[in-house]
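IclR family transcriptional regulator
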Amino acid sequence: MSAEARAPHFVKSFERGLAVIRSFDAEHPARTLSEVAHTCDLTRAAARRLLLTLADLGYVHQDGRLFRLTPRVLELGYSYLSSYTLPQIAEPHLEQLVAQVRESSSLCVLDGDDIVYVARVPTRRIMTAAITVGTRFPAYVTSVGRVIIAHRPDEEIEVRLAQTELKPLTERTVTSPDALRAELRRVRRQGYAVVDQELEEGLRSVAAPVRDRGGEVVAAVNIAVHAGRNSLDSVRRDLLPHLLATVARIEADLRITNPGPVASPGSGTRRSSSSRRSPAPPS
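Structure:
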């Protein structure tokens, strides 16, 4: 968000504190003061004050020159997960799906430009990156991201296409806005998305949207497979029917259990690239 667009109530120091927390990730579990300052575009003095404040609050541990997050940071996400019933409703259905197809399955929601894993049942590992609840990846190259975005209003889709940098993760990644726009239209028509080795060579995934009781797409469920074991035809023929049946059961439970629309954690079209992990494929 630009400085001009910020509301009068915007607290810059709070934004900076969150940026410091987000500067730590799987690739950088420990950082020096200089690294935090550079990553967050802060002066060393400002970064030092923020880190020491987080340390006083128990969210950061200092070990010599290095700073690390502490497990207390998990409290920040737990408040969301504990109040968000969709993962709790979906998980037993994901477990049943994985038992049927013997492939990994996940439930994801859209948060800005990323998808975020909120429930996951793995089998064998078929990608280079470890995937856990809370992991996020660029939405444009994921089956779950595409199937959610495809059901957003056309105006929002156009804004996303204009603002998103379509980076090639493999030789197969769709990097043309026109091609991605056409693919999103196809996904909306057919009701599911298939991504074939655009995220990582050898990885295929299929995803279907999850709608709340009001009919709004709030999440997506996927099945990820190794391309060497599953052709595109077999993904559609053998896996897609099980996926669609699972989504239907989740939606039926949502209609019974959830008293109102299920909100995703964030529906904005942009988020800071400084808080995103390096692109890697989900499963």
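DSSP finds nine helices and nine strands in the chain.
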